[in-house]
Design a protein that fits this description.
The complex is a heterodimer of chains A (about 250) and B (about 160).
Chain A lengths: L5 H19 L8 H29 L5 H6 L19 H22 L5 H29 L3 H14 L11 H8 L10 H15 L21 H15 L6
Helix pairs in contact in A: 1-2, 2-5, 4-5, 4-6, 4-8, 5-8
Chain B lengths: L1 H12 L18 E7 L4 E6 L9 H14 L5 E5 L12 H9 L2 E2 L28 E5 L7 E6 L5 E5 L3
Parallel strand pairs in B: 2-3, 4-7
Antiparallel strand pairs in B: 1-2, 5-6, 6-7
Classes of the chains: A mainly alpha (about 250), B alpha/beta (about 160).
């Protein structure tokens, strides 16, 4: 059965899954055991949230698929995630900087999604926002700590922000699938989140004594399936087992 | 007849432990939301909701429910998972909170997480061992998704705090 707004669901789910996969790379490599656990927990939340969306797609499509089919059996161009989640983790400053800008956007996105006319997405947003509140707080704490820490931590954080900045814009744009969902009262207009995003990011950066990079050329295209070279590598690792040994079970 | 059996099943469900906090059962945790009888398909539907989206225990809980009920001769059980309304620590009974404290886990404060959290405000949490409120948060993320790691400044013991959501 053709599912309405499937691409909209995928945009959210893929963004969460890919970020969850990226964060999982820190498992066993965190700078301290508490951080190792923290990022693994955040990754679990994202993967859990993505799973519930994939399950709902499977239910609505009614083609006998499971959530795993969407995660493991689609190629890069079918993924609808924003580019910011697929770029490499870099050092801990870069990982945390991404967590901070991502959670700032995602928290307000979910707040708006709670008003969606789609009851599943409403429930999804109400559930997820409780978790994202903790993700935001965790990353905000680290921004302050690194910004006000040593010269080295400050330098790394500023560098990370400068490198990341060109990927933040896409979060505050709407892809064709999002425009369609917005017109039906289902989706969130990301453009309207920009003011809040800018306000919160500047306030926290100021407190951390980090400069907000100038709004330069912003990368986009991920949400329409045009990805960087990084996504292929992520999928290769994540999908290997199901591709090499189809239908294998845990 | 169905009502009598439903009452019985609610009792049986108390035998299903939370795999990560076995001192509590799934009823005390507020994970089981509903129980209905589908006359057409002759099936019991047990409706559960996850504490956290990424809670890795959900699959085990689902299997345990089916297994425990089957042992008690309740067959034809289907477990459905719902997200809405979202689980909140406010659903945990006072009895459950006391059990948590007695096992060394600081129970969640009443009143689920508020917006103060966004700006870094942290609530005073009492040490489950010595009741001192001279405690500090070591990490917002502890041994499981639903817990944070704290340390007591008086008895110096580290402890888990069940986070409010």
């Amino acid at each position: 059965m053709l599912m309405e707004h499937k691409e909209y669901y995928l945009t959210i789910a893929d963004t969460l899954l890919v970020l969850g996969q990226r964060l999982s790379e820190w498992c066993g490599h965190g700078p301290a055991i508490e951080e190792d656990i923290a990022l693994s927990n955040v990754a679990l939340d994202y993967i859990g949230q993505a799973t519930s969306l994939y399950k709902e797609i499977a239910l609505k499509e009614n083609l006998g698929k499971s959530e795993d089919d969407y995660a493991f059996l689609r190629d890069a161009w079918e993924y609808r995630n924003a580019l910011i989640v697929e770029i490499t983790n870099g050092d801990y400053a870069k990982t945390i900087a991404r967590q901070f800008v991502f959670s700032t956007w995602y928290y307000h996105f979910l707040e708006a999604l709670e008003k969606s006319s789609d009851t599943f997405l409403q429930g999804f947003a109400q559930k997820s926002i409780k978790e994202v509140r903790y993700h935001f707080q965790h990353s905000r704490d680290w921004i302050l700590r690194m910004g006000g820490g040593t010269e080295e931590s400050h330098r790394r954080l500023q560098n990370a922000m400068n490198e990341l900045w060109e990927f933040t814009g896409e979060l505050m744009t709407n892809s064709v699938h999002e425009v369609d969902a917005i017109s039906k009262g289902i989706g969130v207009d990301n453009v309207t989140l920009k003011d809040t995003f800018d306000r919160i990011v500047s306030a926290v950066f100021q407190e951390a004594n980090v400069s907000v990079p100038a709004d330069v050329w912003m990368q986009k295209g991920g949400k329409e399936g045009k990805h960087s070279e990084h996504l292929g590598f992520i999928l290769a690792e994540m999908q290997f087992l199901q591709r090499a040994y189809p239908n294998s079970k845990w | 007849m169905v009502e009598v059996e439903a009452d019985l099943i609610w009792e049986y469900l108390k035998m299903v432990e939370d795999p990560e906090i076995p001192i509590l059962n799934v009823i005390e945790m507020g994970i089981v939301r509903d129980l209905t009888w589908d006359e057409g398909n002759k099936k019991w539907h047990v409706v559960i909701t996850p504490t956290y989206s990424g809670c890795p225990a959900m699959k085990a809980i689902e299997e345990d429910i089916i297994e425990v009920l089957a042992e008690l001769q309740v067959k034809n059980v289907v477990v459905d998972t719902v997200l809405s309304p979202p689980w909140t620590t406010d659903w945990m009974t006072d009895e459950a909170r006391e059990k948590l404290r007695s096992t060394g886990i600081a129970p969640p404060e009443k009143g689920s997480a508020d917006k103060g959290l966004l700006m870094g405000k942290v609530k005073d949490i009492a040490c489950p061992r010595c009741s001192s409120t001279n405690t500090i948060m070591v990490s917002q993320f502890g041994t499981t998704a639903c817990k944070a790691l704290y340390k007591c400044g008086d008895c110096l013991e580290p402890f888990d705090y069940f986070k409010c959501i």
